Each structure stands twice: as structure tokens, then as C-alpha cells.
Amino acid sequence: MQLNSPAPRGLARVLIATTLALGALTACGQKSATSYVFSVVRDEIPLSADAFVDVRLTKQGSGEPVADAVIFETRFDMEPDGMGGMDAPVKAGGSPTPGTYRFIVSPTMAGHWALKFAVKVQGESDTVRGQVVVAAH
User: Fold this and answer.
1) Does residue 90 surpass a pLDDT of 70?
2) Reported confidence tier of residue 44, pLDDT bands at 50, 70, 90
3) Do the Cβ atoms of 69 and 55 come closer than 8 Å?
4) Cα–Cα dist 25/27, whole Å
5) Whether residue 11 has pLDDT greater than 50
6) Could you give the strand order of the β-sheet that contains 100-105, starting from the edge strand earlier in sequence?
7) Which residues are within 8 A (CB) of 7 and not within 5 positions of it... i.e. 6 or more apart?
8) What are the residue ranges of helices labelled H in the chain?
9) With CB atoms counted within 10 Å of each terminal CB, which end of the chain scores lower, N or C?
10) Cα–Cα distance measured from residue 65 to residue 68, given in angstroms and rounded to the nearest whole number
11) What is the pLDDT of residues 71-86, one digit of tens each?
């Protein structure tokens, strides 16, 4: 294959144009649903009914708390220990401080549990999805 043939040069032009276009969108300040960070306040919880898991939602980069997000989907399961089919009850427990969201969970056995959620953030058109892992013992 010749390097001077039209096919590789055409492909290279398309790749360069695509890269520049994506870079331009990023440079224009387009936010995406990946511009947020979820972090757990305490990564260990008691093995009991009604354990609290507090999760901070912040803007990536600035670390600014994201208040007034709407949580509309949750799941609490043992996927980190290879048992994703084992789930336990989870319910929203309010917001103790701006940008921190409380979940009330009931782990059924000791181990690592993933708390997964889908969130709507004001001004963001896409759904923001995240998860944190806690250890129950």
C-alpha cells in the first residue's frame, strides 16, 4: 500500500476534521452528564435496617456542590462482590446539606454494596448517572 494514495489521505482528513470538531465543542464550554462527581461521605455502614449512605454530588473541576438535583432512580446491590442480582431496599432520605443526598438502605448481608442512581440536574439536558460503593459489616 502506498502512503501517497488518496484513500489514506482522505481518511486522515476525516479523522482530523472529527477531532477538531469535538475539540471545538469542548472548548465552547458544553457541559455533559460526565461533568459531575459522586462521592460517598463514609464508605462503611452497619449491617442493619435503615443504615444511612450520604452521597456528595459536585461539579467536576470546581468541586462546587450541586444542590436541588432530582433523584428518580435508585438501586442497591452487591455487584462489587459479583452478586449483582442480590439487591436490597433503598429510599431517598432527603438532603442534610446542599449537594449531599441521603439514602436509607437495608443491606441483607456483609460485603460490598453499590448504590446506583439516576439524577436530573438543573440546566443539564442529559440524565446524570452515578454509583458509590460502601462496605456493610
Assistant:
1) yes
2) very high
3) no
4) 5
5) no
6) 36-40, 51-59, 100-105, 90-92
7) none
8) 6-27
9) N
10) 10
11) 999 999 999 999 999 9
**Three cell numbers at 134?**
460502601
CA distances for 11 relative to 14, 16, 25, 68, 84, angstroms: 5, 9, 21, 46, 42
Instruction: Please tell me the distance from the alpha carbon of residue 112 to that of residue 123, in angstroms, as a whole number.
Output: 33
- CA–CA distance, 101 with 92 (Å, rounded to integer): 8
Average pLDDT of the chain? 83
- Neighbouring CB atoms inside 10 A of 69's CB total 19
Cβ neighbours for 2, distance < 8 A, ≥ 6 positions apart: none
